[in-house]
Specification:
Blueprint: E1 19-22, E2 40-41, E3 47-54, E4 65-71, E5 76-88, E6 91-94, E7 101-106, E8 114-122, E9 127-135, E10 161-170, E11 179-182, E12 184-188, E13 208-212, E14 218-221, E15 227-228, E16 232-240, E17 247-256, E18 262-267, E19 271-275, E20 281-290, E21 306-310, E22 316-319, E23 330-334, E24 343-347, E25 353-358, E26 365-368, E27 381-388, E28 394-401
Parallel strand pairs: 2-13, 15-21
Antiparallel strand pairs: 1-3, 3-10, 4-9, 4-12, 5-6, 5-10, 7-8, 8-9, 11-13, 14-16, 16-19, 17-18, 17-20, 20-21, 22-23, 23-26, 24-25, 24-27, 27-28
């Protein structure tokens, strides 16, 4: 039992003991219920805790003494305890750190009271102990007046709060996924609560839990088409965050025509696209970043997840070849998505323009009835096509028509 557990002092005028405990906020998904929070942290590094306590709004007297106890689990290294700050209402004291302190906070002239605050570690119980004690400046003892305490009942302003902050480091050798739970308990004036206990019950959220996420995520680009006609290449990435916090961002790196890889696209989802260039070959890989900041390592030089080649814009594929209009419409397919203003001009063998075909924005293929601009079916023979882009680039080739 802790040193204070056997003490019982009944008073006709009592204070009451609400409290709450906070730790490193870490990461939880949006909308996570407090009872399910895991507060993922990226390293087994220093954790900062804060215990807030306040006198219940229906308490009959200010608190004269406050006792705080925090029994440490084996997941926390007791040797790293460091008290950082104490305070209450308008008074705040930054401490020098370390496992022990004892200070007097003089409230005069605002109030004829001195508050002694002591913090220490009890190794027999693995317990952090902190005591706030009101003292009469004249006698150095507890005030005889039960209404003379340092912490009045809390009001709607929320101003009447006391606190203590301290840091601890997780124990050595903990693995990723380890949950570090920590809970403090508070007693005012050695008075049992309505349940007959001398310590406050756990806060409504329960113990504060931080979960270690010590591992970087993994990801991989799904196989791509060996050849594509689109200048907007769709990419699907599969990813796994082995540490637990979840993947937050995917980055796609692309090597253009066997050059060095550069960042081509970023996405918060596993499905996105990157902009390609006509006639270029791309080798790609992904990097995942989890929600606590761990970053997947890049592959070794020259290693990639997937590759694709974009057909040169203007490489028109005629199907069937040659065109035989009596068997149906001709089919034109060309590499690269057309942009607004693209057109295909068709010339006969002597160089006369016989047809201009406007290419709708974003398409990669279309049907054509193999007729001239006047509606007359093209005669058998060889024709020249020229694909023009709005920027003035031209790509040309030939096709045949047989009647």
């Amino acid at each position: 039992m802790l040193p204070w557990d056997r003490l019982r002092i009944f008073r006709f005028v009592n204070s009451s003991t609400p409290e709450d405990k906070y730790g490193e906020p870490g990461y939880d998904g949006p909308g996570t219920e407090p009872s399910l929070s895991r507060h993922y942290v990226p390293v087994a590094d220093e954790l900062r805790y804060r215990v807030d306590f306040w006198n219940h709004e229906q308490a009959q007297a200010p608190a004269q003494e406050v006792f705080i106890a925090d029994t440490l689990q084996a997941t926390l290294d007791e040797a790293t305890l460091s008290f950082e700050e104490i305070g209450f209402m308008d008074w705040k004291v930054e401490l020098e750190g370390g496992p022990y302190f004892n200070i007097d906070v003089d409230l005069r002239p605002a109030k004829d009271l001195i508050v002694n605050v002591e913090g220490k570690y009890d190794p027999d119980h693995r317990a952090i102990l902190c005591t706030y004690r009101s003292l009469d400046p004249t006698t150095g003892d507890l005030p005889e007046d039960p209404q003379s305490g340092f912490l009045p009942p809390i009001t709607d302003t929320g101003h009447e709060i006391g606190w203590v902050e301290y840091t601890l480091t997780p124990a050595a050798g903990l693995s990723s996924g380890t949950a570090i739970a920590n809970q403090a308990f508070v007693n005012f004036d050695r008075v049992p609560n309505p349940a007959g206990l001398y310590w406050s019950p756990a806060p409504k959220e329960g113990p504060w839990i931080n979960t270690l996420d010590l591992m970087p995520p993994e990801s991989r680009v799904a196989p791509l088409n060996e050849v594509t006609r689109s200048l907007r290449v769709p990419v699907l990435v599969t990813g796994d965050d082995r540490g637990g916090s979840g993947v937050g961002t995917y980055e796609l790196y692309a090597s253009d025509n066997y050059g060095p890889p550069v960042l081509a696209a970023t996405s918060a989802t596993s499905s996105f696209t990157f902009e390609a260039q006509s006639g270029h070959t791309y080798r790609v890989y992904s990097i995942a970043i989890d929600k606590v900041g761990h970053r997947e390592s890049a592959p070794a030089a020259g290693e990639y997840d997937a590759a694709t080649r974009v057909e040169a814009l203007g490489t028109i594929v005629v199907a069937p070849s040659p065109f035989v209009p009596s068997r149906g419409h001709g089919h034109l397919a060309f590499a690269g998505e057309a942009v607004a203003g693209s057109r295909i001009r068709v010339f006969d063998k002597v160089g006369d323009l016989v047809q201009t075909i406007r290419v709708p924005d974003g398409v990669t293929e279309l049907d054509w009835d193999v007729r001239s601009s006047t509606g007359k079916p093209l005669a058998s023979g060889v024709y020249i096509y020229v694909l023009e882009t709005p920027e003035g680039k031209e790509h040309q080739g030939t096709f045949a028509v047989i009647r």
